[in-house]
Amino acid sequence: MKLSKLLERIACILGGAQTTDIEIESIEQDSRRVKAGSLFVAVRGTNVDGHSFIPQVIAAGASAVVADKQWAASEEGNQIQTAHPQTVFVLVDDCNLVLAMLASAWNGYPSEQLTLVGVTGTNGKTTIATLLYKLFTKLGYPCGLLSTVCNYVIDRAVPATHTTPDPLELNDLLRQMVEEGCAYAFMEVSSHSADQKRIGGLDFDGGIFTNLTRDHMDYHKTVENYLRAKKSFFDGLKKEAFALSNLDDKNGEVMLQNTKARKRYYSVRTTADYQAKVVEEAFEGMELQLNGTNVITHFVGRFNASNLAAVYGAALELGAANEEVLVKMSELVPVNGRFESIRSPKGFSAIVDYAHTPDALINVLGTIREILDNKKTGQVITVVGCGGNRDKGKRPIMAKEAALRSDRLILTSDNPRFEEPDDILKDMEAGLDTSELKQKTITICDRREAIRTAIALAQKGDVILIAGKGHEDYQDVKGVKHHFDDHEVVREAIGQ
């Protein structure tokens, strides 16, 4: 593609060869992939600044380099441009945003040919995006999905590496959806992707906010920065789009303060545009009232009632018929690793859930406790760990909240990554600040052994919650992903 075509929507000034009448063979942000004819974009990453690789990519044959104006004005930038007058330098204000816009242009602006809906928030993104994908598929539309668990182009699975892929991969997937006839695409929008402008240049027709609680403090540093990243997604929506927010979250209205999109709200607690009320619930499912109509669902918990209210509201905002939506919602089933119940022949249940934040853990345990209290039977045994090289501040909080809501608690390893598992567990144990909490807690570093111990302790009527990994089928240790699936370990231990 001609460089002039790629730059049609991008504000820039030219340096070096100062021509856009050249053919570009590929767009790269990884200097190791650059070859003759490449356009290299010098992205400033979390750990590495792409500008430091500019001499290397020119030597590799890059035809053009996108760099920021700040670099161009520096002594180093001046020297490199002077030394390479045959190279085209495209100078911009924000390389991260421009990379996303270039990726969109390279793939023919695929998001403009789809009805694209993004879902952001701390918890519930995967469930809502996936259920919208499944719902609209049941309504007869070819759909695409971009999620933490797996990406789908209609029914073709594409493994997911990130909650939101990098701009080049993201726009390539959207292009595949267009080429294969998708009408709708539903995607999770992570705070990292919003902050890093990975979603820049995408044409969203709707946005959904779930909730905001402590997470990713290792990256954002403060809750205010985390909120600002989420909010930027809604600030960028066009006026023709819808912005659907959770009125039960204290940040629900804040998220939509500056959006140009039409504002809509959903709730399980108060009057809203889309309102869900739990009529009755059990571990097999719950009866919901959605805007006055009762629906039997296969989901459990008020957090899922909230998720379903969001799905219902988004579907109606997209123009689907109310009665048809309600019928199809009754057919939907939980997402892999989200409150998945496995029944033991001995009469107890094990629930596998992705809950990896304090709020998610509180919600899941609150649901389990509420159902058990109604039945007046059974104890709660929780198995939980925390990931390594992530927000350390939530570790003691996770342990304390789990202990407060469980009869027995087993602290164990999650994905230690490059940290020592014992160090992570010590951070968690620091949250057990009373003798009562300590007495009900044991620590078993080996996750397989921890799950087996929980199952050995369980009696008829009990519920075991195995939290933190959900859909994941690996443990990340020292950079190596070892196969590990909570579901498999449970089934093996109970003899299924």
Give your account of this protein's structure:
The protein is α/β, with parallel strands linked by helices and 496 residues long. It is globular, with a radius of gyration of 25 Å. The protein has an 11-stranded mixed β-sheet, sandwiched between helices. Strands 17-18-22-19-20-21 form a 6-stranded mixed β-sheet, sandwiched between helices. Helix content is 35%, strand content 23%. It folds into 3 domains: 3-104, Udp-n-acetylmuramoylalanyl-d-glutamate--2,6- Diaminopimelate Ligase, Chain: A, domain 1, CATH 3.40.1390.10; 108-329, UDP-N-acetylmuramoyl-L-alanine:D-glutamate ligase (3-Layer(aba) Sandwich), CATH 3.40.1190; 340-493, Protein-Tyrosine Phosphatase, Chain A.
